[in-house]
């Protein structure tokens, strides 16, 4: 089995990469920092799987398309795509710099659109596959002091739903994850105890469970939040 994961060197992406590699998946991974990718590649290859890595600026259309083509050329078939990349820049929509919206749109929406379209067409031809989009609880309701982030994550969920509708007739599944506060690098410096957060490994374990459900079932959305944050 072959999987693609964007923004794979930290947090949710890394947890999913480790889980899939442990389970025998070959992986194509991207992130901004080449050194982090090489380090993760070496770690994951110890599980006896093939790991392909490519430094990628996911705010760049050219970079995203190059990574998609790199992944397609690395494998004869793509079984799983995880659109994990995301940018969160705090701020009120009316007060923030326009560039803040444009960056979050580029990563949260445009990269997901381009990856899903390119890889989705391949899955459509093969009549199999599963796309996971790591959205947010902000996809459902605006988060405080997160104007553009909430807009782009809501759009990401809408994109997810369109993909699911268009790909279902071709036996391609599409699932949205909507995590609440998850212990990733965006919470660096917080004094909130780790056990108060959703853990990246929780998302990875849930995703793997979904992958092993019967062929005829699709999990449309996974809302996963802290018990008492």
Description:
This protein has 229 residues and is an alpha/beta fold. The protein is built from six helices and seven strands. Helix content is 44%, strand content 16%. Helix 1 crosses helix 6 (200-211), helix 3 (61-74) packs parallel to helix 4 (98-126) and helix 4 packs parallel to helix 5. The N and C termini lie far apart (37 Å). The mean pLDDT is 93. The protein has a seven-stranded parallel β-sheet with strand order 3-2-1-4-5-6-7, with helices on both faces.
Q: What does the secondary structure layout of this molecule look like, with pairings?
A:
Layout: E1 2-5, H1 11-22, E2 26-31, H2 34-45, E3 51-55, H3 61-74, E4 80-83, H4 98-126, E5 129-134, H5 147-167, E6 172-179, H6 200-211, E7 221-224
Parallel strand pairs: 1-2, 1-4, 2-3, 4-5, 5-6, 6-7
Helix pairs in contact: 1-6, 3-4, 4-5
What attributes characterize this protein structure?
7-stranded parallel β-sheet; alpha/beta; 229 residues; 7 strands
In short:
It is built from six helices and seven strands.
Strand content: 15-25%
Largest sheet: 7 strands, parallel
Assembly of the depicted chains: single chain
Rg from C-alpha positions?
Answer: 17 Å
Instruction: Indicate the overall shape.
Output: globular
Please list the strands of the largest sheet in the order they lie side by side.
Answer: 3-2-1-4-5-6-7
Low-confidence stretches: none
Mean pLDDT: 93
What fraction, in percent, of the residue positions are helical?
A: 40-55%
Number of strands: 7
For the termini, the CA-CA separation is 37 Å
Summed up, the helix count is 6
Order of helices and strands: EHEHEHEHEHEHE
Helix and strand composition category: alpha/beta
């Amino acid at each position: 089995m072959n999987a693609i994961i964007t923004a794979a060197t930290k947090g949710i992406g890394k947890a999913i990469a480790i889980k899939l590699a442990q389970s025998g998946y070959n992986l194509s991974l991207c992130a901004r920092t080449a050194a982090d990718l090489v380090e993760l590649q070496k770690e994951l290859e110890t599980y006896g799987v093939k790991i392909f890595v490519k430094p990628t600026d996911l705010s760049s259309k050219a970079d995203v398309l190059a990574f998609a083509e790199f992944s397609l050329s690395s494998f004869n078939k793509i079984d799983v795509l995880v659109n994990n990349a995301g940018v969160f820049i705090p701020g009120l929509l009316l007060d923030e710099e326009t560039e803040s919206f444009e960056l979050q749109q580029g990563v949260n929406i445009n990269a997901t659109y381009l990856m899903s379209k390119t890889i989705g067409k391949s899955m459509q031809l093969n009549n199999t596959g599963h796309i996971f989009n790591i959205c947010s609880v902000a996809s459902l309701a605006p988060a405080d002091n997160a104007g553009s982030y909430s807009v782009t994550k809501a759009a990401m969920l809408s994109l997810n739903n369109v993909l699911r509708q268009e790909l279902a007739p071709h036996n391609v599944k599409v699932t949205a994850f909507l995590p609440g506060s998850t212990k990733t690098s965006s919470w660096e410096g917080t004094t909130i105890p780790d056990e108060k957060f959703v853990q990246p490994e929780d998302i990875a374990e849930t995703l793997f469970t979904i992958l092993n459900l019967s062929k005829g079932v699709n999990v449309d959305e996974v809302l996963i939040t802290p018990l008492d944050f």
